[in-house]
Target: ATP-binding cassette domain-containing protein
Amino acid sequence: MSLTLDRVSLMTASGRLMLLEDISLRLTWGDRLGVVGISGAGKSLLLRLLNRLQDPTAGRILWRDRPLTEIPSLEVRREIVLVPQESTLLGMTVHEAIAYPLTLRGVGTAEIQHRLDEWCDRLKIPSDWLPKTELQLSLGQRQWVAIARALATQPQVLLLDEPTSALDVGRGEILINLLNHLTEERSLIVVMANHQLDQVRQFASQVLHLQGGRRVAYGPATDVDWPGLHDNFVAARQRADENWNLNP
Ligand SMILES: Nc1ncnc2c1ncn2[C@@H]1O[C@H](COP(=O)(O)OP(=O)(O)OP(=O)(O)O)[C@@H](O)[C@H]1O
Model:
């Protein structure tokens, strides 16, 4: 069982700009891929391709040895679940938001309650959040509920786009520990885009470093030169800021 990117590229609709270029990688059960790169590197676009919100303009993505483009999008999204950077509860309460995707999947009432209890417990979601709507939650709390909603669907691949960006350090640690535990406990692949290198270091079994849509490095996390990567980020951010100042 694997998720494979085979020389995947993505161009803008005009065909003028290459957004992702020639990305290859292979993930199997238990893998935890950290996708790193400065802002604009292509991390979110990569997650969108994996969730079939967009299709590559060149190359192939294979899920369980089938081209993703040949699997109906709804089927893909039942197995490969994306938690976007800014999640919404679509006007529902926390309770409804977690239960709704399960109802759509035909999960029975007792099982829905069981999963709600399980994920609220594992993610330490207090019961007084359950009747609240997103207007009564902070950005970080909303992000947290979106993660619970995704996990309750029992995905086979979980795609997280900057899941800890609005969370305090404690919640970030709970999430990383939980993900590490889950990938060992059940058949799960996790792909997480994250700016925060210290968190990626605690989480990832593999690391993909993107810069300007290109793969700078990809391999086991144990091979990563973390201080070197940090310095690379600082330099890349400085170059991006200088460009920004020259071309405001
Ligand atoms: N539909 C589009 N048309 C043209 N350019 C796009 C499109 N979508 C994204 N881009 C550009 O592609 C680049 C990569 O965007 P992406 O959102 O994947 O970056 P990112 O690494 O996730 O950044 P961040 O960390 O800020 O979320 C950016 O320069 C963005 O402006």
